[in-house]
Specification:
Elements (H helix, E strand, L loop, with lengths): L1 H23 L29 H14 L1 H4 L31 H10 L15 H14 L3
Helix pairs in contact: 2-5, 4-5
Bound molecules: heme C.
Length: 145
């Protein structure tokens, strides 16, 4: 039953994604990066739909290494070669103190929508939702408890 609903939900999400992409294609190559974090109010409650297991974490790490570590650093400390040192603190994904503002759902929308200043590229055009959720699982595993 639950699995059934999930499948149905994914189909809807896919349809929505395709629509967004079609619209976005007109203003390419501009990325759809929002000026600030765009995070729905319900995000704090949103749970990762993927099982957080070794396979998910390994997939998330692969994507992180390709797309995130240049800014956030190999261990998530905010010290990658492209990091703006002014934001070293907010870019440190390992801090326990910043966990409350980075629930799974909130992290998902930060990655999905990006932000303009300070700049973090939106991934909605480059990754599927499941890929982003895999990255969410991985970066949450870097955070100190
Ligand atoms: C071009 C550099 C850049 C890239 C690439 C990048 N980020 Fe970021 N990220 C930032 C900056 C800058 C901030 C801090 C924004 C702020 O101060 O609010 C940030 C903030 C974040 C935050 C919020 C941290 C907090 O405590 O509020 C998360 C989570 C995050 N990034 C995850 C990722 C992931 C995962 C990826 C790869 C898919 C990624 N970022 C790619 C620059 C980047």
């Amino acid at each position: 039953m639950t699995a059934h609903l999930l499948v149905f939900g994914s189909a809807l999400v896919c349809a929505a994604t395709l629509t967004t992409r079609a619209t976005g294609a007109t203003d390419a190559p501009m990325r759809q990066t929002a000026p600030r974090w765009t995070i729905p109010a319900t995000a704090a409650e949103e749970k990762n739909p993927l099982p957080v297991n070794a396979a998910t974490l390994a997939g998330g790490k692969r994507l992180y290494d390709q797309k995130c570590q240049n800014c956030h650093g190999a261990a998530g400390k905010g010290d990658g070669p492209d990091a703006d040192t002014k934001y070293a603190d907010t870019m440190d994904l390992t801090q326990a103190a910043r966990a409350a503002r980075n629930s799974d759902g909130q992290v998902f929308y930060k990655i999905w929508n990006g932000r303009l200043n300070p700049k973090m590229p939106a991934q909605s055009a480059d990754m599927t939702r499941d890929q982003v959720w895999a990255v969410v699982a991985y970066v949450q595993s870097l955070r100190q408890k």
